[in-house]
Structures are given as C-alpha cells and as structure tokens.
Design goal:
Largest sheet: none
Number of domains: 1
Number of helices: 5
Number of strands: 0
Oligomer: single chain
Helix content: 40-55%
Order of helices and strands: HHHHH
Length: 90
C-alpha cells in the first residue's frame, strides 16, 4: 500500500484470483492466508496483512451473507492492465 494511498488500496494490490481465494477462505484462516500470499515473490512482502484481512471481512458484511458459496464471484475486482496491453497499436 502506498503511503499516500487510500485505505482500500490494499485490495487493489491483490491479484483477482488471490482476492477470490481470500473471500472463499474460512474466516479463521484469512489472516494466515494473507501472510502466506505476502511471502510469495509477486507480493514481495508488500501487503498489509491486517488491513487486507479486515477489508475481506468488511466485504463479506457488505454482501450480507455468512456463506462463501458462489458470492465471491459477484464482487467486482479491479482488473489489472498489463503494460503490453495498455499501449496503442499504431
């Protein structure tokens, strides 16, 4: 998360598949799962695990269900644009 970023930038740092994984994870295991993701090369310890875990819990509250079946796919996740696809062709 950037020092001048907003509180929600934590989720923007996550790959969409990783956010879906966290949303489908048993609540008691969310923090540990974020810590495991944070050790991976793609994140290089750049995630604020406590903030991300809290945001995942808040997303679950917004959805208004305690079940993880099927609802994670309905939460919009910001798409990541790769540098190769963001340039103009021509």
């Amino acid at each position: 998360m950037k020092a001048n970023g907003t509180y929600h930038d934590g989720l923007a740092l996550l790959e969409p598949d990783d956010l879906a994984l966290l949303l489908a994870t048993e609540p008691a295991r969310v923090l540990g799962t974020v810590l495991s993701l944070n050790r991976e090369v793609r994140y290089h310890n750049s995630l604020n695990a406590v903030v991300i875990a809290e945001l995942v819990f808040r997303l679950r509250q917004v959805v208004g269900t305690h079940s993880t079946e099927g609802w994670a796919a309905n939460i919009p996740v910001p798409s990541k644009v790769s540098p190769a696809s963001s340039g103009s062709n021509g």
